[in-house]
Design brief:
The chain is an alpha+beta fold and 381 residues long. It has helices at 10-15, 63-83, 88-91, 131-147, 166-179, 189-197, 204-210, 250-261, 279-293, 299-326, 338-355, 357-372, and strands at residues 24-28, 36-42, 50-55, 105-106, 112-117, 217-219, 228-230, 236-239, 246-248.
Length: 381
Amino acid sequence: MNNNAMPYNFNDIIAHFNTEGEDFEISNFGSGHINDTFLVKSKTGEHPGYLLQKINSFVFKDIDGLMNNMLYVVNHLKQKVSKAGGNPDKEVLTLIPAKSGKYYIKDDQGNYWRMTCFLNDTISYDLVTTRQQAEQGGVAFGKFQYLLSDLDPKLLIDTIPDFLNIEKRQKDFKQAIQDDKLGRLASVKTEVDFLKSWEVPMNEIPKLGKAGLLPVRITHNDTKFNNILLDQQNNIQCVIDLDTVMPGYVAFDFGDAIRSIINTTVEDEADLNKVQLNVPLFEEFTKGYLSQTNSFLTDYELMSLMMGVLLLPYMQSIRFLTDYLEGDVYYKTYFEGHNLQRTRAQMQLFKMLELNRAQLDNIVQTEWAKLYNKFDVPSIK
Ligand code: ADP
Ligand code: GN1
Ligand code: MG
């Protein structure tokens, strides 16, 4: 095993799991901001290999609860996919059991690890460039919600309490401003003032939720485009990164996916002029998403989708800036000021979305009307 440069004893860690083969090569993998991901390839190549992940236990405080959630979700999805004649091994993540019978282990340094089967010949994109990719993204996350719509949300715990609760995020943001632990506040006054000025309008979804107008369903809650795997033909194969699958509102998934799809550049773009909207990709994603969810979405949920499109980039800006003020303790960062650069790019995206809200809203309504041949959708204020 070639793991000289790696800080972990991979031989010992992998030996705890029921893997096929034993002579493995390990390499870093993926571009996620939270977990540490490694590709485990058999040297002889007779097995597609595994994905080994060190679960971020600073972010996820209840690993046992998290892995229980994941097990419920993958088992349910596999059953549904099999019944529909699909291939559950390819279309749903497969967790590798540890020899203890659990689906994760704790190593002697206190790190938590899990393994899944590596899905060969798949691609995850940080940037979406084609209409087909966007449409397949919509199908992927729409179908994901649909397949889980008959699983009781009460079976799942909140793996991160208040994860997409904007009121809590705003409160934490204010606390970080007040603490100003690293003396960074003075340099981000413009950003802080801008984000604060949107505090009230960004509370539409929780308001509808509290009024009982939005059903709580099982949602993915981290629908960044690189959390799906496409096959070589750019068709959807599998939804991944299931750590945040828990009770939520459908608009969270719609909004967060659009955040990563509609942007013509990367999430942490330094040149704000490059942050532009690719509206045809919005249209394609919406088409794909509604094709899978039209059987269960309520009128209020439909109306909430555009609220999610604004809320998620706004919330992401607040989350990045809070982390910057707190000293970059949550997201992986790769240079000084990375979280601030991410904040600025997300804020710019939010501004562009807000400017084009009417046009995007119109697309959602038109795509819905095409499915139902009706034009009486409630309009969004
Ligand atoms: P993070 O929480 O850090 O974002 P992910 O679960 O999203 O971790 O995994 C990181 C990356 O690893 C993904 O974006 C994807 O490229 C790749 N990946 C994850 N699971 C698999 C898998 N089972 N097969 C192939 N690639 C995978
Ligand atoms: C994190 O794990 P990853 O990179 O897919 C984060 C998301 C953010 C995203 C921003 C558990 O997602 O909520 O939207 O970064 N995940 C968690 O890129 O906080
Ligand atoms: Mg991910």
